[in-house]
Amino acid sequence: MVSGDYFDLIENEDSFLFLLGDVAGKGVAASMLMSHLHATFRTLASQNLPLTQLVGHANRLFCESTTAGQYVTLVVGRAWPDGRWSTPAAGHLPLLHASPTGVTSGQATGVPLGMFCTTDFPVCHLKLEPGDSLFLYTDGLSEVFNTKGGRVGLRRVEASSRATLPRVPSKCSLRGLSEVRDFSAGVKRTDDLTLLVMQHSN
User: Fold this and answer.
1) What Rg do the C-alpha atoms of the chain give, in angstroms?
2) What is the mean pLDDT of residues 14-38?
3) For 151-199, what is each residue's pLDDT tens digit?
4) Residue 149 and residue 106 in contact, taking contact as beta carbons nearer than 8 Å
5) Are the C-beta atoms of 120 and 60 separated by less than 8 Å?
6) Is the peptide bond before 166 cis (omega within 30 degrees of 0)?
7) Is 133 helix (H, G, I), strand (E, B) or coil?
8) Residue 192 — φ and ψ, nearest 5°?
9) How far is C-alpha 80 from the chain's CA centre?
10) Closest CA to 161 of 188, 132, 122, 140
């Protein structure tokens, strides 16, 4: 089995990088592009670049090594032990910030990697309190259909993330995947699905 979804965690001296994305297309071709992207970010991450430069360099390299129409939506973030998070997004679905006061949906910013060789990727800054969580996912979660043609959609994803608080990330993930299976019972799912839940525990 191969996948075009992309996920990685990279530790630095004082922080860590997290990456989650979705390569356009399916099957072997998308999986090969995902592997290429993985190698690119692993190489660039060792240089400890600011996020804007990191994503900008990755975008240029991706553009120069792929053909027209090949792109990837992506969220790249850096997290520090004190709860600070910085996350530029490249056309990906909005991340969800879940706290005891509710769930806040971020905005999809920037354009997908590979669309234009030179472009800016705005950075969003967050401050998480202990117990707060971030939910990131690919469209294999939000675009699941049921037998009546209904779709999970972003509102249902938000409601699911709200219902999981204050559970630990592993239980949040299991609940989210269980709800998708229940919702789409009787329907063959063909898209890749990736769900990432991160919680500030200090």
Assistant:
1) 17
2) 85
3) 766 777 777 766 666 567 777 777 777 777 777 777 776 667 888 888 8
4) no
5) no
6) yes
7) strand
8) -65, 150
9) 18
10) 132
Backbone angles phi, psi at 110, to 5 degrees: 70, 180
Please choose, from the candidates 24, 16, 102, the residue with its C-alpha nearest in 3D space to the C-alpha of residue 62: 24
* H-helix or E-strand spanning residue 177: helix 169-183
Q: What does the DSSP assignment read for 75-109?
A: EEEEE-TTSEEEEEEEBPPPPEEEETTEEEE----
Q: Given pLDDT bands bounded at 50, 70 and 90, which one contains residue 60?
A: very high
The answer to whether the predicted template modeling score (pTM) of the entire model surpasses 0.90 is no
Residue 180 tokens, joined: 């998708």
The sign of the torsion formed by the CA atoms of 19, 22, 27, 28 equals negative
Q: How much is the average pLDDT of 82-103?
A: 85
Q: Are strands 195-199 and 84-90 parallel, antiparallel or unpaired?
A: unpaired
Question: Do residues 10 and 41 lie in contact, with contact meaning Cβ atoms separated by under 8 Å?
Answer: yes
pLDDT value at 80 more than 90:
yes
